[in-house]
What does this fold into?
Amino acid sequence: MRLYMPRIIASMCVAGLAAAVAMSLPAPAAAVVPAPSDGTTITADATARGQWKQNFKWTISKTVTPASWQLLRGDSGTSMFTVAVTKQPSTEISWIDGQVCVTNTGAEATQGLSIVTTLLGGPGFSQVIGAQNVPLGASDAIGPGDTGCYEYKVDLPASARVAGGSYQISATVAISNLVGSVGTPAGPTAAAVATLSNTPLLLNDSVNVDDSNGMTWVFDSSGSQTYPKTFTCDQGNFTHKNRATIRQTGQFSEASVTVNCASLKVRKDVFTSLQRKHKWTIDKSADQSELTLAVGQQYQVTYTVDVNARPVDSSWMATGTIRVTNMAPFAVRLLSVSDIVSPDIMASVSNCVAGAVQVTLPYTLGPNWTIRCSYAVALPNGDSRVNTAIATAQNMSYDAQGHGTPAGTSDFSGTAEVNFARAAITEIDKCASVSDSFAGDLGTVCAPNVPARFTYTRWIGPYEACGNYTVENVASFVASTTGVTGSDRWDIPVSVPCSEGCSRTQGYWGTHSNYGPAPYDATWALVTPDGEDSPFFSSGQTWYQVLQTPSAGGNAYYILARQYIAAVLNQLSGADTSAITTELALAAQLLADYTPGSSITGALRDSFINTAGTLDDYNNGVIGPGHCSR
It folds into this structure.
């Protein structure tokens, strides 16, 4: 590291450090060389401090018991977590560090600066302990009046380490342009004394351990902490991962508890009986609500006819069976089984059987056992309802040894729709005949196979002249018993522009040539001389081949060429291209000047890509006369 500071501040710092050193040991005076005109002069000062540290290592482990639980939803289990740390033997390190500051007191910048620090100890600092070249950073030149300060560090081996002992740093500074010694490195020597502390600085003598379950402990020596955590089975299977971390070192250990949550599976069926009269409805729709076509263009529309029947019922009754299966790998105490039809109509539950034996509740249900109960309920009307069966089980709270005590209850439910469409019924207008003004007879629909849907396709167009048209369509039904009828219609307005056609994408033109697969669009025949097989500029390909060639690697030529082909075909089909007159001309010029193998980079590539983007907006109807319906 190299620092520069104003000369006055540097002198103050140096003076203070020199005074402190002088109190313990006289240091050689900073050398100043008289300043003739053949170089420059420098002074040097040094600081020193002793560092002695003792670092303790730790290890950490975390365990848990039990590490897994098999519980019923609503049960709880308490696991015991243990965090243990071990204090390892310490290691000691010591060194002397500080700064050597060099001040240029002459009139020109220093040259060839070097600094060597020597660590001395023993009686009268007669023992050489170590030496090093001080790193100078990116430059060794110090300008006139400037001070450069350089950091050093010399390791103090254990063999030379004395508690409370003093050590001297001798810094030899040299430059190659010192006055009087130009060309021969020379300079002053600065010294500083450091005293080692009587005892080392202790690192990690004690540590803080933070636990992700919310606990924190302080350890001065090896030890452990144990605490409980309760897990409640209120969701599906899950794993709780826990970590204990030594705050000072970042070391950690993890322990996980896996909770497997089982449940009672409740299933039920519903059988209904009633008298029913069906009220039929019909809905007609299509995948297009309006169309814009060019003169001579066709478009295929898909029509949909949906029919449904709403029952009007009386004498409603629902009966069935409730099945409760224990999905847990252990026995569960089943307390009760009840049944309710929305909103709050209670059913009568009776005749509970396990296997072939009739049982009474409460009842202990073994693993994978099933109990079956019958229910019956009279309903006030035929509204759509939900029938819910509820099995109530005893919950348990387990300690770490697996001993359980009763603790609350949990409900398990299964639902079924009360749907009188499947009832034993006397039916009126059970079936309806469906027809369509386009498709004719669509067929007969009978409850309960409702709702039912019919679909068919029909070509709209072509129109020989521009103008506005309407395609009308009506679907109808006739009920089987009473002859009641109903209908619905879907009319499609069709606009055939007289002067401004609509645009289509390159995808359309790529599939509507003589090569298929879609119906041929005669616009291709307007491309000279051979339609889609006409040569495309100097590409060596036909119009169709260029349109089918992918722009591998982002080939700018093909990106522009495909959009240009689509725009020209749109123009030939009658679409107004005034919005892209400039871009069409520019594209034609670029495609005439270059080939697919040309190097198209930089601003030229930008021109290709930007022009293609504008043509793409036109072909997609963002600009121009608008996009065709297909």
